[in-house]
Structures are given as structure tokens and as C-alpha cells.
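Suppose a classmate hands you a notebook page containing two proteins, each written out with its sequence and a corresponding row of C-alpha cells. How would you begin to make sense of it? This section walks through that situation. The first entry is reproduced here exactly as it would appear on such a page.
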Amino acid sequence: MEFIYDLKYTIGWIPLFIIGIYNLIHPRLKIRKLISLIFICTFGFLAGAIYSQYIMLITVLIVFIYIYHLYHNLTPLLMLPLTYIIIVIIDNILELLFYTVLHTDHRTLTHTPITFLFTICEAFIDYWITYFISKKLHKYVLRRTVQLPKKLLLMLFLNLILCSAIIAVNVFAGAKLGYQSADVTFTIILCVIFFILSSLLLIYSIRSTHEAVMAKEKLKQYEHLKQYTENLEQTYNNLRSFKHDYVNIIASISSYLEEKQYERLTKYFYKHIVPTRQKLVQNTESLNKLMHIRQLEIKSLLSYKLMYALEQGISVHVDIPNDIEVFRMEPVEFTRILGIYLDNAIEAAHETSKPSIELHIADCGTHTAILLSNTFLNHGLSVADMTRLNTSTKGKDRGIGLANVQIILGRYPEIFHETYIRDNFFIQHLELPNA
């Protein structure tokens, strides 16, 4: 009889666990990966109910490893113990409610038609609660928070694990020692109160960290804006200088013509006049195209990075055919993405014999398209490898930038993004919805 109860109880928990993971983890698992997770949980939990509860613990550990393998990030792992806590709370409160209204305890439920009703109610409540929590987490924490320090994530993770462990010990001890449902539920409520209070302290820490990082990012934006202003002033001074020297240039050319020294005139023209004109025209054209971008922090970042590329001897082509009023993304996160893309493009292009960077931005009506391409040397890494953490051809402690971009874009499923190689150019392609 005990075995049948444990088996039915375990079968009822499997969909609850899957529902919680599916709702809480962002970005959500694709169908194939979700099926793999269902198979792991079903096989492991049933084996644990039939043979030993230690198999369940091993299964949970396998799920931790699997989720980390998919996301390479601690944040999704926080959702696993949170899922367990939510399920236990729902299970005990609902069981207490059934006991109060229908006068049935958890043992009676396994032998009556009420079992089916109990399971359906539990799954329904679990889905909507985890869905609601997921929306709030995604809106106010995951989407807005700049990447949290690993120590803070570890504190959150340990807090959740501790609360889960206390609840699990209480549940298993209650089952072995014969606690009443009310006793177990009361203890769980105390654990939940502890969890809420400790989580509030951690949330305060997260907000403080977030504000500090935001202040740092705003300082960076200010520096970019300052550099942008300096670039404009430098270009204006170049124009004034060119205008001031125009008379002297004409005079020097006329003296060569009067003395009919055409060969020396040709050398003088190509050595002194043409390079000055090309540099002035290229710098001016680049800045003129950026005038179509109305969002100041984005314009200043692009100006700073592209002017730096020009100073490094990299050919820069900018194409922005129409006005871009605003990019539908958090400005701090968008500047981080563009900054990482441009830094990588400049560094990669500088390694080539003919360094070149091309930037295309266009408002296509329903979305804004961004293409950034650069020349590069192929070191044998695939595009998939380049986006993995700590994977780089540049040495130790490198390869973090593109991995961070993947994490940020993972919080914006509506944004299309792809990375590919075409005609010896490394291309980053983004499409941001306008609505």
C-alpha cells in the first residue's frame, strides 16, 4: 500500500516539476530539449519511487547539469529549487484545503476519485503561479538587470537550495514519523517566511548592484558622448584649417604651373593634397551618416568606436538611408551589445592586410535592421564556438564578450539575431521590432 502511494505521488509530481521549469526558465526550452528533460525526469523519478529515493536525488543533480549545459549560466539554475519550493507549497496548502472541505487526508486521496480532481487542480494552480512569477521575474529582474556578479548569484542559489533542503527534510520526516498534514504545512509555512525574508535581503542587494552597474554604464555613455563632441569639434577644426590653407594650396599649385614643373606638381598633389582630402572626406561622411540616428547614446557610441577604427587605419563604410528615432531595447543593454560587436570587429579587422568595417542600419517599417561586417582572419573556430564562454583565439581570459551578448539577447526572444561568415566577412545581423 505504501509503495502504491509513493508511486502515484511521484507520478503526480512529474508534470508539476516540468511545468515549473518550462515557465520559469528564460529563454524557454525548445521542444526537443523539453522532451529530453521530460524523459530524464520521468525515468529518474519513477526509478526513485520503485527502487530508492537516492535515485531521485541523482536525477535532480542530472537535471542541474543538463540545464547548466544548455545555458552555461547560473541564473536558470536558480529556477530549479524555486520550482520545488512552489510545488511543495501548492501541494500542502491544497491538501490542507481538501482536508478542511472534504475531510480527506493525503492517504485517502490515493484511493478515491478525488485523486484526479486534486491532481488537475494542483497542475492548474502550478501553471498559473509559475507563469505569473516568470512574467514578473522576466520584466523586473532578468530583463532589466545587467549581468549579476557570480558571488551574488551563488548566494541566491545557496539560499534557494537551503530552503529546498529544509522543506524536503520536513516532508520526508513527516512521511516517516507520521506527522499530520497540518503539522507539515505549518512547518513549510515557516520555511517559506524564512525564504521570503532572506530573498528580500538578496533582492535589495541585487538592486544596489544593479544601480551601481547602471551608474557605471551611464558614466561610459557620458564618456562616449564627450568623445563624440570632441570628434565633431576636431572635424570642424579640420574644415576650418582646410579652408584657411586653401589659398596657400592654390598659390603653391599656381607657382608650379607658372614654372611648368608638372612632374613636381604631380608628386606634390598626390603626396600632400590627396591624403588630406581623403581623410577629411571619409571622417566627414562617417559622421554625416550617423546624424540619422536620433538616440544620442547610440549615436555617441557609434561615433566614438568608428572614429577610433579610422584612426587605426581601418576603412569604414556607414550606410544609414533613413532616420532611426529609437531602438526598441534597453539603452544600456543595447550599447553593451554594440560596443562588444564593434570592439571585436575593430580587433579582427586590424589583423587583416586590408582592414575594413561596414555598418548598415535601416528602418524597414516593421523592424530596424542592423548589419555589422568586418574583414577577419579565419583561425578555424566555428561561429557556434565563438559564442561560447572563454572560447577565443586571443589567449587566456578572453572570449567573454560574445557569450555575454548571447545572454542579453536571450532575454529578448522577439529580437532576431544571427552570426555568419560570407565572402571573407564576419557579419553580425540584428533585427529589432519597431512595435
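The notebook's second entry, a different protein, reads as follows.
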Amino acid sequence: MQLPSSDNMEIEVQYLNHLFDKTSECYKFFWFQAILTKVLEGKDVITYEELIDEMIADAWYMVTEYHLNMGPKDTLERLVHHISGISSIKSSEKKEKVLDYLKQCEDKEVAQKKRTLTYHVPYRLQAPFMETMKGDAWNVSEGNLIARINREKRLMYYFSDLNGMQTEIHIQPEWVKYIHKNQEILKGWLKYNMIMYLQKRNPSVPGISDKLKAPEVRKLDKVQKYWKLLLKLGPVREIYGDEIITEKDISIDHFVPWSYVAHDEFWNLHPTKREINSSKSNNLPDWDIYFSKLCRLEYYSYEMMNTCESVMEAFEICASEHLNSNEIRGRIYKKGLSLSEFSNALEEVVQPVYQSAKNCGFQNWIYTGDNGI
């Protein structure tokens, strides 16, 4: 994917195209993304502190909610985990709340790790622009490195005098114009490169492209209508607390959390009660306790759709949006299956996904009747 050229900046854009050619850690992506964010907010002079806070907030959801691996010894990932451990910030918290916390945080380890993040990426990011900077030219003090880089020409940004986290970068006017003019292309290019990087480090994780930011509101209306129809035909008990579900308190749960699967496939969805779903959050239900119960609930649904025309019609409406594999549909929902056959087919689909989520760090969960554990 090539970036658009620009008058008087043809060489510079060629350098920009190589920004992520050599990336062993995730810092470059988040630093560049932070620059884009701040420039598009109208800033062209930005402190290290502002940029690092943006990086943490942008990585927050990926690390805490999606459990993505950012790199073998990634300081940004470790910093996010540390902040998650010392704060009361939810994994699903909005970016603005994370930024507000960082502005007020006085934790010494947070300050130290934030400063560590500034030792290399502000300088190394522009390495493709500086063909004369090789080998030992990088192995000098920060102050001397800044002075050396500031003598280069055609850079995207230059530095103020070194002043810890208050050191500033000054985005050049031609680059401010380029970013504003080509912002959507730049965002797409950055997203593409970030996906390629993260997929290599998270090979078993599905839906990486959907995990670069907090999810949009998910639409499960059709699935909810399907289960509400079943509620009208007879009592339905949810699988965690064995409680009867009503139309007023029904909630659709992803058995394997959405934050891992990043899809709304019908075979992973089932009804529960709102307070139980909230308690479960993005944890993994204990397999030994709950999977057999899930099978029985889903088999009840399967029997109803094959004996009641209105249920089959509602299922087909759901399937058009929430059942995207004909192969899986043929295995789980073909007619004539016994409970044992249905359960085996469902397990063949769900168990590998469940185990992969477990391997990625999603926590085991058992409903206790209050807040779960």
C-alpha cells in the first residue's frame, strides 16, 4: 500500500512509506498514531507526555480487554498492565477516562516506564528519513542525539531542548498539511501495518482488525427476538444460575467472550439475565460446569426450530446475519440430530475457540449468585 505523493514532498513521502519496515516492538505504531491524533486536533507542538499518554490510552483496550500480545518484552504492554493493577479503571473504559487518570497519576513506576518509552521511539521513528544516521551515530546521549537529528533536513518533526517528559516535538508545516489532506489514507495505512504486526504476534487470535479500538455497539436484536419468541412458548432457564429468563431481563451472552472471538455467530450466543451477563463480563465460563448446560439449552432451541414453523422463520432471520459458515450450519443445525450428536457437533466448533481464548489469558469464571468469581 503506497501513500499518496505530494508537491515538493516526493522524497519525504517515499521515506514515510518505509516507516514500519523494521519493527520489533509496537512503539512506532502507537507513537505515529498519537502524532496523527494530536495534529488532527490542531496541534503542531506536542510534548512527550501528551504523546505517551495517547499511546497508553490507545493500547488500553487491546491489552486489558482483548489480551493482545504486543511484543516479547513490550514496555507499553507492561505499563498498561501495571496501570490496570493499581487503578480502578475498567478494561472497557472509554479512552477519555484513561487519559484523565494519566494526567493525575503520581505513581513512580508509571512515571519511570513512561520515560523509558521516550528513550528510542521519538528518534528511531524517523530513521528512514536519515540515511546518514547509521551504527554508532545512534549510541550517544539523548541531548546529543537531539542536536544531531535537528541538523537533518526533510524530517517530519524536530525537537526542542531535552526536558524530560516535557520535551517537545515540532511538526513541520508541510507535514501538518499532508496529514490533514490525507488523514483517512494515513489511518488506513497505519491500521493495515498494525494488523500485520499484531497478527504475527497473536497467530491464534481471530478478528485482529476489530481489536484495534473499543467495539462499536453490537446489534443482537434479531437474536434477542428469537429467544423472546421461545420465552413465549415455554419457560427458558439460563445456564449460569438456572434461573428462568423473562422478556424484561433477557440479555444475550457470548459464551466465549466477544472480546476474543470478535464476532456474533449464533452458535456462540445464548440468553441469560442482564445482571448475570454483567457479572460474567469478558471472562470464560467454567467449561466443566457450563458447557453441558449450554448444549442442553441450545438443543432445546434446535428442537423448537424443527417442530415450530414460527421458530424456524425466526432462526432463518438470525442465520442471515449471525450464521456465516455453511459448513458449521451443516454440522450443528442439520435435521435429525440427537442431543448427544448435537452436543458433539457444538463442542467441535466451540472447544478449540474456548481453549485458544484460555491460552490468551481470559480468566475462568463461575457464577456465585452475586458478582461471580
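A careful reader of the second entry would note: The mean pLDDT is 92.
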